[in-house]
Design goal:
Shape: globular
Bound molecules: acetamide, zinc ion
CATH class of the largest domain: Alpha Beta
Low-confidence stretches: 1-22, 472-484
Strand order of the largest sheet: 8-9-14-15-16-17-18-19
Structural class: alpha/beta
Number of domains: 4
Number of strands: 37
Radius of gyration: 28 Å
CATH topology of the largest domain: TIM Barrel
Length: 735
Amino acid sequence: MNRTKILISILLVIGSFTNILAQDIIPLPKSYTSNGDVFQLTPDAKILYSGELEAMAEYLEETLSPATGWDFDVAQAKSASSNSILISLDKSKNIDKEGYQLSVTKQSVEIIGADAAGVFNGIQTLLQMLPSEIYSNQRQKNVEWIIDGAVIEDAPLYPWRGVMLDVSRYFYGKDYVLHLIDMMGMYKMNVLHLHLIDDSGWRLEIKKYPKLTSVGAWRGEGHERTGGYYTQEDIKEIVAYAALRNVEVIPEIEIPAHTLAAVAAYPWLSCTEEEHVVPLQHFISRDLYCVGKESTFEFLEDVFKETFELFPSKYLHVGGDEARYDRWRECEHCQARKKELGLESEKELQVYFTNRIQRMAAKHGKTIVGWDEIIERGLDDKAVGMVWHAPEKAISGTKDGHDVVMALTGHCYFDVAESKIPGEVKAATWLKPISLEKVYALNPMIEGLDEKYRPQVLGAHVTLWSDQFIHGTILQEIAPINENRSEKYMDYLTFPRLSALAEVCWTPKDLQSWNDFENRMSTHYRRLDEADFGYRVPQPKLVSKNKVNDGLEIVLENVVAGAEIRYSIDGVAPNVYSQVYSKPFVVEKLSQFQAITVVNRNQYSLPLHFPEKYDKFKKYGEMVAEWAPNKIQGKEFADFEMNATGKINKNGTYELAFWFTNGQHRLEIELVEVFKNGNKIAEDDHPAFTGGNSKNNIYTFEINDYETGAAFTIKAKVRGDVGNDSYGAVFIKKQ
Ligand code: ACM
Ligand code: ZN
């Protein structure tokens, strides 16, 4: 790889590290050739641009000015002069769409794109070549704004590099949307899909149907009322802001399910025409739009008309997922429609619905995008299938002539936490954690896809669902976030995973390397800090655990440049004041140490910890909690509390098993209670014990109202039988 990596002066001292100057560009460019020069940005540097790029030149000036504290002259020019940054378009150079050439010499910087998008992307690379402080919106003194000389040629691997924000379940104000566009732009992501409508809220002003927002955008009463919506002026501002940053904004007007907010506003949209309120809890309503009544189509035609005037994108996302047909089966209008069309199933009615919507969209020159359900079922015309839960749909869909975008639940659902470490952010739990490495492992050209369909695989797409923020309030205290806001949580869920997905979508496959990415990423956390983008601080890495005479020698690696590792070996969770890791240490067994990455006093990671595995008790499920003499009383029964969030993760019957592992005295149990968000929802009340022998030590309870994002705790009443010298663990299993 013709890429040099120069790390100058990383001072490993918190708060005082400056000038991280690294060619740690993410996503990694196609080619990077160092020329040994250095360009120094000074107050008298000029920003020059060719004809069409005035707005981009202003953007560059506004981007460089706050941190440097300098106002740069901006002028039109045909070629670079000494001490200038020139941005220009050159269609003769055979640069791919969105691609650019960037050259940095001692005299000047030149960015040439085939289009404005390419120039924007070149500017992002240039920013990553400057010291990280360039992202700050405050003047930074004592920074030398130097850029290593190089020639870069670059263009994206995939044309679609997307992010979906669910603004329905939780309403993100306009400012957060602009913030997300900035986060995307930094990593050359180019599609923002707004999930504007769902059961829990309608977020787009439609002038012809004011109740969509006066009713459908709000839930709850009095001081508990939450919600909001984007006015048409807000949308115009978002779209324009995004356009300059090479982000195309695609609206999702979901049909036929996930539409209760619209039904609450206008009950005649549904089959039953019953009154509803916008729900306070997350669930998927069975009240779909009625496909039998023409009024549904007239309504949607009107909604689309206003929508298309706001969103210039050639795409309309129509959802299409998770429709359950109970209402259609019971509706005289829907059944009459089915009969008249000679259809055999309600599934076919949905295809009819989608086809009509597709024709409406086509009249306005729009192509429909939908969740993979829509391409499964045969459409009249080509669509884009967003493949989420069934990868094989990408294979059948491309064969049927559709384009596909990969939003696979195993890699792209960033509303799922990165780990199961206790204390991890409260996130969707219906899927396994998606680590940074798992995101990086995505290949949108999934196995089984024929190479000849490659052009139909447009790229990949992150989903940021908000089910877990539905209440709009604090769900869980997380010290590393230190502020109880859904927006902060969303940043935490987004970075660093967005950086990984960006590279998956951009960098040639043969240049993608997890280890190399992780190294480059280490200097990006500082950039994210400067830009005021939140992120999840990664845990330190265990490099080795070699056997030595008196135990295991633990070698750790810090993966955040400028941060430090702190650790403990006494069984107490480490904190920002624990011992600093400066050299390998020895422990008796692996479970003995815990280590965290500390960026600063308010930003640190969850612990790297390898708890006892309890292989012997595997068949009783996952460990929920351990007890030791300090956690239980002697004689008196007292509460023993366990955090079961993420372990209770769907409805069903659960078994909770107490197992003694060590000590003089057995543990007695008399009651187990289960709480959801602090409210008791189940119990099993019977006496039991575990010790040298065990009796009735398995408790059973039912979960009927599982809710994404809810906190589950279990409290047991326990005591040490005579003495409290007992050790053991509790396991949970769904039957
Ligand atoms: C989806 O997650 N229902 C597309
Ligand atoms: Zn109906």
